[in-house]
Write a structure and sequence with these properties.
Layout (H helix, E strand, L loop, with lengths): L17 E5 L4 H11 L3 E6 L13 E4 L2 E4 H6 L4 E4 L7 H12 L3 E4 L11 H7 L4 E6 L10 H4 L5 H8 L19 H24 L3 E6 H6 L5 H8 L16 E5 L5 E5 L3 H11 L8 H4 L3 H5 L1 H15 L3 H11 L3 E3 L3 H6 L1 H5 L3 E6 L4 E6 L23 H7 L5 H9 L4
Helix pairs in contact: 1-7, 10-14
EC number: 3.1.2.26
Enzyme class: hydrolase
Organism: Pyramidobacter piscolens W5455
């Protein structure tokens, strides 16, 4: 680690990195949580008396008479919570904020009205020329291009899905599109944040020069559209909703088992198709790949439709566990659709240590939540503490990092700035 004084324990590949983040709800704060899971010290700035909106997101769990958002308990762990009225018109706030940035590597935010708050990239880079600044918004910051009024629009996960074109493709063709859950665009955007921030951070190590990273939710989602745009620009075709089934090959759908469970089963390409047909005990000469699964015309042909009926009947004759076992033996991709309950009870999840316990700071008791991903052999991540109470670490941060004394902290509290 560097010669800076850190509050959190040392662990993981990102030990020695300090992140200052400000904002709420899901994309940017979740990206910060992933960094915290792997050893970065994350100071999450929240408004005094208000906090991150994620704290108010249902569903809630009540333990020992105390209520906490389950999303907050899962996704705010490992962070330090600092309450600060982040408006730089207050000189005391500017002193605190700039002081933290001098001791930080990254500032991440998904707030609005930065100019009204007196936060300007050029000033932050003067305070710390090595700083990486990451902005997260629905439609991007105008400094990186775009129609200014569109950049200024408010956004949510659903809006990013809609504007990117992703939402248009979700669901069955004879129904309105279905929003991809839960908060797909936010979590996709979080990983765009992680890549952009870490790429900029690596560049700082090489050049000593910080920079600004602009993550727009709609662009993060658009990157996941595979050949959709190229299909239009190169072939002049607008891709339409096709539901769960693939129109160009089979089997590739969700099927119902004998015991009433849903099973996802797919076979793409002649090799996997052959293994499926043999694994299911069908006649490969009759249901050959060219006639049944080699393209849209083959799938829609009488023999292709016959195969689809056979697959539906075959799945309905077996339990979900039997389907999974037969496809496992045949090396064909297949999985039952897990609920939270069945995933939690699944031996594969358990054997990979995907369920961990840690003490949630709000309800002050151990909870069980999803663990660390990805796995790392030499510098694994960990959870050293659960999600914090609002402002739980404010005093410690001010004393340890900025050297404030009790009197100065008391004055800030009386003014409602922390």
């Amino acid at each position: 680690m560097s010669d800076r004084t850190f509050i959190i324990p040392e662990f993981g590949p990102l030990a020695g990195m300090r992140i200052i983040d400000s904002g709420s709800l899901i994309a940017m704060p979740f990206a910060a949580t992933v960094l915290a899971d792997f050893g970065a010290e994350v100071i999450h700035i929240e408004r005094p008396g208000v906090g991150d909106t994620l704290r108010l997101m249902a569903p809630f769990a009540t333990v020992n008479g105390k209520k906490v958002s389950t999303a907050w308990a899962q996704d705010a762990r490992n962070k330090l919570s600092m309450t600060l009225e982040l408006n730089l018109k207050h000189e005391e706030v500017k002193e605190i904020f700039y002081g933290l940035l001098r001791e930080a590597d990254v500032f991440m935010e998904n707030m609005v009205w930065l100019e009204k708050l007196g936060i300007y990239d050029e000033e932050l880079l003067k305070v710390n020329p090595r700083l990486v600044i990451v902005h997260v918004s629905g439609l991007g910051h105008k400094e990186f291009g775009g129609v200014p009024s569109v950049c200024n629009r408010a956004s949510y996960d659903m809006i990013g899905q809609a504007f990117s074109g992703w939402l248009y493709l979700q669901g069955d063709p004879d129904r309105d599109p279905a929003v991809s859950k839960p908060y797909t665009n936010d979590f996709v955007s979080a990983y765009a944040v992680l890549f952009g921030m870490l790429a900029a951070y690596v560049n700082v190590q090489k050049t000593g020069k910080g920079q600004v990273v602009d993550v727009a939710q709609f662009e993060a989602m658009a990157q996941y559209m595979c050949g959709t745009y190229a299909t239009y620009t190169m072939a002049g075709k607008i891709t339409e909703r096709s539901g769960n089934a693939s129109p160009a090959f089979q089997p590739y759908n969700i099927f119902k088992s004998k015991d009433g469970f849903l099973v996802a089963l797919g076979a793409f390409g002649p090799g996997v198709y052959k293994r499926f047909i043999q694994g299911a005990g069908f006649d490969l000469d009759y249901f050959n790949y060219n006639d049944c699964s080699s393209g849209i015309e083959a799938v829609a042909s009488p023999k292709g439709r016959e195969l689809n009926r056979k697959v539906i009947e075959w799945c309905a004759s077996l339990t979900a566990a039997e389907i999974e076992r037969k496809m496992e033996e045949a090396r064909v991709p297949c999985a039952m659709l897990n609920t939270a309950k069945s995933a939690f009870e699944n031996e594969h999840f358990k054997s990979r240590n995907d369920w961990i316990t840690y003490e949630d700071q709000t309800v002050e008791t151990e909870i069980t939540a999803f663990g660390i991903a990805p796995k790392m052999s030499e510098t694994p991540g960990k959870v050293w503490r659960g999600a914090p109470k609002l402002g739980q670490d404010t005093e410690n941060i001010l004393k340890t990092i900025l050297g404030y004394d009790d009197a100065k902290i008391s004055s800030l509290r009386e003014k409602g700035l922390i």
